[in-house]
Amino acid sequence: MRLVVQEDAESVGEWVAHYVQERIRRFKPTAERPFVLGLPTGSSPLPTYRKLVELHKSGQLSFEHVVTVNMDEYVGLSPTHEQSYHAFMWTNLFEHIDIRPENVHILDGMAEDLQAECDKYEAMIEDLGGIELFLGGIGPDGHIAFNEPGSSLCSRTRVKTLAYDTIVANSRFFGGDIAKVPTMALTVGVGTVMDAREVLVIITGVSKALALHKCIEEGVSHMWTVSCLQQHPRACIACDEDATLECKVKTIRYFKGLQDTQLKLLQLPMEGYGGTSLTRGSSTGSAAAAPAPLSSTARMAVQEARKDRLSASSVMAAMSRAAERLSDDRSVSSVDGANAFRELATVAARGKPAAAAAAASAGASSGRAPKRGADDASRSAAKRARDV
Ligand SMILES: O=P(O)(O)OC[C@H]1O[C@](O)(CO)[C@@H](O)[C@@H]1O
């Protein structure tokens, strides 16, 4: 399992949205082979949805060939009820993007035969060929979707009675009146989530800190159903600093260290591939020297990074995308560029996007420089970045 820690909920949203964008881009969906995306509701995914809308509006992301499958819905709320998850999804995401209404799937909490509705939902997911990426949210009691404590870890879509804790937590959406919160919901099961080819769960805020601790530092348990992720071959949690408050410093450092290594690993396929598209920097590799021409991939990344209004996490996401594009292109022959990317990530993490862009520029232009020169470039870029 991966744990990606970002500063705050907003940065988590940016990271997740960029991740989703990249997964869709790489999947190259078509009408015949759409990208099937599982989605949650609640306040946790709101920053992600805002960013996805932004990416769509700026022409960087299309949902034309995306099919969505929502996690859950309250029993007894009509789709037009403002607190229904139907209304939530249309208001916060679907009506702002180019998704086809027939590609949206949300359980019907008003269905006459609720279990038949759930069975139909499972069959629909199977017909779609399964879920490619399931984004998830959790409750403070560690439930994933609405799989409350004690749910079977093999459960499928079904009717669930909501735990009192969940009713209290969600009463904030019903004017603080717990009597107005539905007591039952339809929800995909833990088994349904686990069948997705990839699961990415958003955990933000101090109210979820105990659940995160249970999920990553203790064993798999039906009392904290999100802990099922430990047994998923491709699971990731994107959390903010507040959500880590109940975890050991050592655990969080460990995962942050992995984050760093993963960024490096993204560069590794670059080694050993000859290529021409990334033009070398000067052999002395000085970052202060006139920048060498860059390949279009690297140039794009640097331009993205240079927009000062981008937050540190966007810069990191941009560079990580650039790294992936570079390794896809197989046109860059040096791991020395990776050093500069690493420096970039470090600087970006300190919240200096402009400085990070300088490092990126030097790193990209040193991509095919001889080792010594590239190292020099990395070092001077990093120094320059620190001085900004
Ligand atoms: O993000 P919030 O507002 O805490 O809400 C989380 C809720 O949303 C859900 O993700 C429902 O989709 C539940 O798992 C959880 O109860």
TrEMBL record:
It comes from Cafeteria roenbergensis (Marine flagellate). Catalyzes the reversible conversion of alpha-D-glucosamine 6-phosphate (GlcN-6P) into beta-D-fructose 6-phosphate (Fru-6P) and ammonium ion, a regulatory reaction step in de novo uridine diphosphate-N-acetyl-alpha-D-glucosamine (UDP-GlcNAc) biosynthesis via hexosamine pathway. SUPFAM superfamilies: NagB/RpiA/CoA transferase-like. Residues 8-230 form the Glucosamine/galactosamine-6-phosphate isomerase domain. GO terms for cellular component: cytosol. Its EC number is 3.5.99.6. It comes from the Eukaryota. PROSITE patterns: GLC_GALNAC_ISOMERASE (PS01161). This is Glucosamine-6-phosphate isomerase. The lineage of its organism: Eukaryota, Sar, Stramenopiles, Bigyra, Opalozoa.
